[in-house]
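Many introductory courses stop at the sequence. We go one step further.
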Amino acid sequence: MQDNFDDQAIRPLAIPAKIKKGDVVRVTCTHDTQLRKMLPQLQPLPPRYVVWGDGTADEMCLGLLIGTRS
């Protein structure tokens, strides 16, 4: 789980996954609304329905696949 807003590094898998044509890759994300206490700019804001977006008050979840042909 990513708990540090400023740590947005890509971390390759220790052992690469082999994905074949027809395989399904699924990314599932959850967020903890209590983590908003860590961002001072969000503390004065009233609670609201959070949606995906690229703003500080939004939630973001990305799954990146970087592959090579073997």
